[in-house]
Amino acid sequence: MIDNLIQFIARLLSGIYGLPIVGGSYGLSIMLLTLGIMIVVMPLTLRATKSTIKMSMVAPELKRLQKEHKDDKEKLNEEMMALYREHGINPVGGCLPVLAQAPIFLVLFQVIRGLTRRFEDAPFSGVVNKVFEVQGRASEAPEAAEFFPRYLDRSSAMFQDLIGTKEMTFLRVFDLGAQPNEILSGSIVKAIPYILLILFLVGSSFYQQKQITARRGPGAAGEENPVMQQQQAILKILPLMTGVWSFFFPTGLSVYWATSNTFRIAQQAYITKTIYSKKDEMEASFKAKLDERKVEEKTVTPEPKKAKAEKPAKEESGNNSSASKSKVEQRRQRELERKKALQAKSKSRSSSKDASQGGGSGSSRLTPKGTKPQNPKKKR
User: Fold this and answer.
1) Strand, coil or helix: 147
2) 279: CB partners within 8 A, 6+ apart
């Protein structure tokens, strides 16, 4: 599985290298590959940012649930998952961009090491040298420091340009297959471009962390929370660690890091402008949903005392134990009461009709003295 992914990235890099617009530049190929990866991962980053904002908004509600269900872990998990589903929160969403990019970094590390494999490291180098010696062409044998790339099709332009060379040159000053510590031990002057690249890498990492912390505002970073303090300390140390690692990794990885940091700086500016500018609207919407949820919980599960006080007097006298009935029994009781009401209503209508008919035939109207009783008018 890993070998297939390594071969896929290597051949993708080789395909980018063969594009006319790239012009056979190893560094530009790595930069374009990095930008492609970052664009693919960008939707995950945007979702993770929204999920992080929502997680900060539901923190007080989560604390309330933890206190309310501290003795029932199963119920607590059910309530938490219901809260996450209601507000569209993925608890692990914040880790997805990092989890998606970590394998790419490791795979690219193996790809660059494979592309810059020296002939002396090839498993059959000894056999090849022996063959040249037997044929009397020992001087024509490949040198030990020459490249013999892996993972590439031998007919590809990148393979043909790498084989037989000793450097993966970029901008005429970088060897993307070399480690900066090796260059520094050989010549300080040649190491200056590598040191500048690492300084840019560390500075861009620090600036990216500054963009993230600036959005939280004063006092919003959890100054009293020891966990948040540890996270902030780790975030401050990571850029320095990245600079240290860059000295011992192939320079091609530093180009990957520097390109991804530049893209993230632009991405964080876009997130601040589009997502965090609507944070107040998200908080208002979240508060409205939370209030609706609380109202629904009160109507569905009323308190026993209030329910008893609101019962009609007739229902209290006839059904003292109705609070303990199931929903099916309550539904049946309501159906019986409805039928009784309909029967009583129909009886009252029939009795009133009989009374009106009897009054018209056997009774006479009272009239003033000296006047004749008036007979009711017949309907036509």
Assistant:
1) strand
2) 53
